[in-house]
């Protein structure tokens, strides 16, 4: 087990921001088109995280033209340029799969977390 952990440790990025389930995030993801790379923005609510070590993933959901779109991102992928937390969410569940059945504003409504001055670092 120690050999596996040692190999995974090399691939884990240190500059990943702290975000939790219920947070609204912008994921800047590199996409290859023909012979050039560009950055595509995917913004939505984090509805789940899973995995451990270098295989951690997180799922982001957004509403696009009335349809729900979910995308699963590997947390330590070299194609993720950055993850920006736009809004903190206060939730009482580990997975927000119940948002899949909601429509309209209810599908994106998550209670906002109040961040105190002393907690910001």
Count of distinct strands: 5
Q: How many domains comprise the coordinates?
A: 1
Say what the CATH topology is. Answer: SH3 type barrels
C-alpha end-to-end distance: 35 Å
Q: Give the strand order of the largest sheet, numbering strands 1, 2, ... along the chain.
A: 4-3-2-1-5
Low-confidence stretches: none
Shape: globular
Strand content: 35-45%
Count of helical regions: 1
Largest sheet: 5 strands, antiparallel
Mean of pLDDT = 86
CATH architecture grouping: Roll
Please write the string of helix (H) and strand (E) elements. HEEEEE
Q: Using the coordinates above, name the CATH class.
A: Mainly Beta
Secondary-structure-derived class: mainly beta
The portion of residues assigned to helices is under 10%
Evaluate the radius of gyration. Answer: 16 Å
Task: Supply database-style keywords.
121 residues, mainly beta, SH3 type barrels, 5-stranded antiparallel β-sheet, 1 helix, 5 strands
Please render the helix and strand layout as text:
Layout: H1 2-11, E1 24-33, E2 36-50, E3 57-64, E4 67-74, E5 80-87
Antiparallel strand pairs: 1-2, 1-5, 2-3, 3-4
Can you tell me about this structure?
Strand 3 and strand 4 form a beta hairpin. The protein is mainly beta. It is globular and about 45 Å long. The protein contains 1 helix and 5 strands. Strands 4-3-2-1-5 form a 5-stranded antiparallel sheet, with no helix packed on it.
